[in-house]
Amino acid sequence: MKFNLILKVATRALIRNKMRTFLTMLGIIIGVGSVISMLAIGTGARESVSASIASLGTNALIVSPGSVNTGGVRTGSGGRTTLTPADALAMVTECNAVAVATPMTQNGAQLVYQNQNWATQVTGANEDFPVIRNWSIGQGRFFLNDEVRASAKICVVGQVIVDNLFPGQDPLEKVIRVRNVPLRVVGVLSVKGASTFGASQDDIVVVPYTTAMRRLFHLDNVRNVLVSAKTPEEVERANQQITDLLRQRHRINTGDEDDFNVRTQAEFASAADQSTRVFTLLLGGIASVSLLVGGIGIMNIMLVSVTERIREIGIRMALGARPSDILWQFLVEAVVLSLAGGALGVGLGYLVAQVAAKFSSWPPVVSGMSVALAFGFSLVVGVFFGLYPAFKASQMDPIQALRNE
Predict the structure, then answer these.
(1) Exposed site from 52, 103, 246, 348, fewest CB < 10 Å?
(2) Do 281 and 333 sit in the same domain of this protein?
């Protein structure tokens, strides 16, 4: 029997029981839709994390204080107070793989402007902060090196600060107060958006680090040093040069533990990518269970169909149909069910992904690979679970089948 005739007969049999056909397909529809939407959410999370890490800056490295061991209790990274602005200056002047570096402080504070106030993080940095963070100025300007050395009472604010302290006003040259210290707004950072964990990066005030250390928070050490290597290829060399330099400056003996940590952008990206990859696979695996259940539903209905159509099978065999023709007829029915359900499931998955985009901090990404994977899996499910009922039908004795009432 020709394949197009087999397909026609199989399709006619499925249309004859529309409701049962739809309910059988429903398991595949839900399964494929779940796989598509879950993989889209996972892929979207991965891309959001990658973009957030990339927004840290070009060729970036972060140097942070190490841990303190007191009576066998380790404080974790940042426990020491060993990094100074002089360390950051030395990295630029003595490490030829380093392009620029900025000391960084970060402290919570309440901002006040007239009758408005807002709690946020005040970041101290030098004039190279926008370069390292790859963060452009949306309005006004960033502070200069002379202003950093003079501990100038100026600041650059993010868009969230503008929206909450200066609604409907031009923020430039306005004076806000931080711990009763007046700071003149000289610039507004361009909108950066949410970070990896959903927090707004635009909820920020940047001041000269000297202003933060001397006038606002009275600090002797910096929280970390943000560094940019000259090229992506120089990142690892910069890492080694910074490590050697700080061990020398901090007088760390050979064999002793570093009192600092150097982390590269690649390390952050690798760790984040591994975590989100596991997250994506977990979501896809959970969703695949529903696709498996849909396949079991196909097998169940096909077995029922074989039982109901025993006499029809007997007549076909009596008229010359071979066992292989019967096998192909029922197998094609199962595959058509699965593929039709898979096609509708792809549409459902895309729709769910678009709805999820409105409630998540990252946009789900429906990739061609995930669609092909889910669609291919539905085809495999149709063949696998349709093969046994089709084989059972093909092995019937035509005489016994004709006697069936």
Answers:
(1) 348
(2) yes
pLDDT at 109: 94
Total count of residues recorded for the chain: 405
Pairing of strands 154-157, 181-189: parallel
What residues does 187 pair with on adjacent strands? Answer: 140, 156
Helix-strand-coil split of the chain, %, nearest 5: 55, 20, 25
DSSP run (H or E) holding 308: helix 265-308
Per-residue pLDDT, 195: 61
Strand-pair partners of 139: 188
Whether residue 368 has pLDDT greater than 90: no
Closest CA to 349 of 29, 20, 42, 33: 33
User: Would 57 be classed as within a structural domain?
Assistant: no
Which residues have C-beta within 8 Å of that of residue 401, sequence separation ≥ 6? 310, 311, 313, 314, 317
**In a shared domain, residues 219 and 367:** no
DSSP strand pairing (69-70 vs 137-140): unpaired
Q: How far is CA 220 from the centre of its chain?
A: 37
User: By the 8 A CB rule, do 7 and 333 touch?
Assistant: no
318: pLDDT strictly greater than 50? yes
Per-residue confidence (pLDDT) for residue 74, from 0 to 100: 46
The residue among 174 and 28 whose pLDDT is bigger is 174
Strands (E), 25-87: 60-65, 69-70, 73-74
Q: Give the domain range for residue 191.
A: 81-258
- Determine the Cα–Cα distance for residues 123 and 208; give it in Å rounded to an integer: 8
For residue 105, give the H/E element and its range.
strand 98-113
Task: Assess if residue 140 is contained within a domain.
Answer: yes
E strand intervals along 87-240: 98-113, 116-125, 137-140, 154-157, 175-178, 181-189, 204-208, 224-229
Q: Tell me the residue type at 349.
A: G
Place of tokens 């985009």: 357
Q: What is the mean pLDDT of residues 128-140?
A: 91
Q: Is 218 left (phi over 0), alpha (psi -120 to 50) or beta?
A: left
Residue 264 lies in a domain: no
Residues 212 and 333 in one domain: no
Q: What is the pTM of this model?
A: 0.60
> E strands within 179-275?
181-189, 204-208, 224-229, 260-264
**Do 94 and 239 sit in the same domain of this protein?**
yes
**Would you state the pLDDT for residue 401?**
56
Are 140 and 254 in the same domain? yes
Domain count, the chain: 2
pLDDT band, residue 354 (cuts 50/70/90): confident
> Are both 89 and 155 inside the same structural domain?
yes
Angle between helices 3-16 and 323-357 (to 10 degrees): 60
